[in-house]
Amino acid sequence: KTEDKNLDGVSIYLCVSLQGGVDNEVSLTAYIAIALLEIPLPVTHSVVRNALFCLEMAANAKENHVYTKALMAYAFALAGKEEKRKALLKSLEKQAVKKDGSVHWQRPGKEPDVDLPYYRYRAPSAEVEMTAYVLLAHLTTQPVPSQEELSFASLIAKWIIGQQNPNGGFSSTQ
């Protein structure tokens, strides 16, 4: 379903099918919801409410990509929808790559990392981004993250820190 909403003179399309760095219409809707909630617009605002409704319907689908789940988990965290946030994080944890005392997520079907001497592998930017969104979803909870969530978040942060380039930056522009 395509919906055109006007927010202070800016047209926003929710649940549309567009490509361009975004995996699908659900990812695009999650990006928009995150941006609006970070403004911050209240969850009662009609555009935010409609975006969250679309995400709630999509969250029940089994075929969601890991990147899309990470975006939705963060959007629900910002919206204060704890049950949806927790359900997505539980699903994401099952897909996590746990290695060398750290945790991260990678795209389905990706070839395993090759351990070569004198070479430090750095993940593609999409994997850094989705892992960072999962970290944000763990840390964005009310009133505060539990000790268990903080412990798990530290394992995620460890992996992200390992992805820094020699100048302290990341391959991602997000």
UniProtKB/TrEMBL annotation:
It comes from the Eukaryota. Coiled coil: none annotated. InterPro entries: A2M/Complement_sys, Alpha-macroglobulin_TED, Terpenoid_cyclase/PrenylTrfase. Transmembrane segments: none annotated. Residues 13-174 form the Alpha-macroglobulin-like TED domain. GO terms for cellular component: extracellular space. It holds the Pfam family TED_complement. PANTHER family: ALPHA-2-MACROGLOBULIN (PTHR11412:SF165), MACROGLOBULIN / COMPLEMENT (PTHR11412). This is PZP protein.
